[in-house]
Amino acid sequence: MDLRVVGLTHVYAGAPVLQDIDLEIPSGRILCVVGPSGCGKSTLLRMLGGLERPDAGAVLQVGEPPEGCLNPLTYIFQDFALLPWRSVAGNVALALEDRRLGRAEIARIVDDVLARTRLSAYRDALPRQLSGGMRQRVAIARALAVRPACLLMDEPLSALDAQTRELLMDDLVGLWLREGFTACYVTHNLAEAVRLGHRVAVLSRRPGRVREVIEIDMPLEERAERMPELAVHERRLWQLLREEAAAADQELADV
Ligand SMILES: Nc1ncnc2c1ncn2[C@@H]1O[C@H](COP(=O)(O)OP(=O)(O)OP(=O)(O)O)[C@@H](O)[C@H]1O
Asked: Which residue numbers delimit the ABC transporter domain (predicted)?
């Protein structure tokens, strides 16, 4: 299933936050979204997930969700949102409860998703016994348990230290190679955007408009080894963001 954003515009209390956004997230691809603080990235993600309705335009789901999909649009948050009293397996099972599945079916799906995310050995651990990186891996496993059509990831690595972020980026690449998941990935971190994005959309300052969409052709599995070539894309992203920041400063100076 592809996601298509068409002419999406939204206004909060008379102040536009997103304007005429057109974007496409083809099935099996990762779209990263970067932009200045407050430009509406999280708002866009909420609109993609149907948590809020845009004032104009639409988010279209094109095609069929994957077989066995229980929740087409599934969020992953930066704070992991795990229940501290539940084990790893219990947290993953949480996403499957209230979905008319029998106990045996839930157990089967939990076992399968823990194996796919290399977490089987930690199934009985509690969140407090895990590092931040491991907790986020559990949150990712929980999201995958519902066989989403598109993962909506809001700065999923930003609560982690730099080393853990690197490891988790490798992990996400490995997972993408195995699963080919579809994602919209919001981040402030340009290095993450060029490591993980097949495309990177740059939003302007508020109201967020699509300033540019950069295509990165390099296969994800080669990116860790070919950082110098990625640096060109990162510089381009930085240049666009710097222009936005400079324009915002200029507007303030003109007031
Ligand atoms: N429910 C709401 N009601 C009114 N204003 C809101 C609401 N949610 C967000 N905003 C405002 O809309 C703007 C965009 O917010 P949003 O969180 O989407 O931006 P962002 O790009 O994700 O920001 P950041 O990069 O800082 O996380 C901000 O000015 C914010 O204060």
From this structure: 3-230
Using a 6 Å cutoff on CB, does residue 41 contact ligand 1? yes
ipTM for this model: 0.96
| All structural domains of the chain with their residue ranges | 2-65+150-254, 80-148
Indicate if ligand 1 lies below 6 Å from the C-beta of 17: yes
Q: Which fold has domain 2-65+150-254?
A: Rossmann fold (3.40.50)
pTM for the model stands at: 0.93
Dump pLDDT digits (tens) for 114-137. 998 889 999 999 999 999 889 999
Give, for ligand 1, the residue of 18, 21, 42, 153 to mutate: max count of ligand atoms closer than 8 Å to Cβ.
42
Could you tell which of 8, 9, 11, 17 is best to mutate to test the pocket of ligand 1, judged by most ligand atoms within 8 Å of the CB? 17
Cis peptide leading into 207, omega within 30 of 0? yes
Mean per-residue pLDDT for 29-56?
95
Whose tokens are 């948050």? That residue is: 77
What are the pLDDT digits (tens) for 136-149? 999 999 999 999 99
| Ligand 1 close to Cβ of residue 205 (< 6 A) | no
Cβ within 8 Å of residue 45, ≥6 positions away: 33, 75, 152, 154, 184, 186
